[in-house]
Design a protein that fits this description.
The chain is built from three helices and twelve strands; from the N terminus they run αββββββαββββαββ. With 229 residues, it is mainly beta. The chain has an eight-stranded antiparallel sheet, sandwiched between helices. Strands 1-11-3-2 form a four-stranded mixed sheet, with no helix packed on it.
């Protein structure tokens, strides 16, 4: 859908100055997602580059790879018949971007024949969407998905809940707990707001290549590499 549009030149931060600043340490919160500055160590989380992902018994981790660039674009945590897809983006120092992105998602879903409600949730405002899909019989159906987000210090973490957790609050709780336990490792490099922060396969060294947020389509899943925990 191309809903994560590249920020316009006039909206960019002073990137050179930004590189010299330390990320602010947040305080007074009782749940994540967390910035790396807010935790003492990685603990029992899996290092996939810009994210440290919590582990749970029986969880499957699927890393989604762009087939054209071979860059890792997202991580999907699958547990008990539901999934939480997470992506992390660079963001400006001063302003969050979730309000704008939420509006763009809603507009894009509606244009494609779906519907969406903007509702309060455990992480603030979120979207409950019904995404259009083609059934095996060739008809148009709808797949529910919850879009959740968190604005951190110079980063934005987006989650998409699918499966039973998208519509069942009881099923959603364990995936919401996973989202709240994610740690973001943004780094100090200057980055264009809305660029995807680099993810890696487990055990793989990070690269300097940055995937453009404008090229990723959340309606389509890329090739996946699965690791079971």
């Amino acid at each position: 859908m191309g809903i994560f549009r590249k920020a316009r030149e006039e909206d960019l931060e002073d990137l050179a100055a930004e590189a010299d600043d330390d990320a602010p340490v947040l305080s007074g919160r009782d749940q994540g997602p967390w910035d790396v500055s807010e935790v003492t160590d990685r603990g029992d989380r899996l290092d996939v580059g810009a994210l440290w992902l919590p582990r749970r018994n029986g969880m499957e981790l699927r890393m989604e790879v762009d087939k054209n660039t071979q860059l890792v674009t997202a991580a999907s945590l699958q547990l008990h018949g539901s999934a939480l897809q997470v992506q992390v983006f660079a963001a400006p120092r001063s302003d969050g971007i979730w309000d704008d992105i939420r509006a763009e998602i809603a507009e894009s879903v509606t244009k494609q024949g779906g519907s969406v409600d903007d509702l309060p949730g455990p992480f603030g405002r979120e979207l409950l969407a019904r995404l259009p899909v083609r059934t095996a019989a060739g008809r148009t159906g709808h797949r529910p998905a919850r879009f959740i987000g968190h604005d951190g210090p110079r980063w934005f973490l987006r989650g998409v809940l699918s499966g039973r957790a998208a519509v069942d609050p009881e099923r959603a709780r364990e995936l919401e707990a996973l989202f709240a336990d994610v740690v973001v490792v943004r780094g100090s490099e200057p980055r264009v707001p809305r660029d995807l922060l680099p993810l890696t396969l487990p055990g793989q060294a990070p690269t300097d290549t940055v995937a453009s947020a404008a090229t990723f389509d959340p309606m389509n899943r890329g090739p996946e590499i699965t690791e079971v925990h």
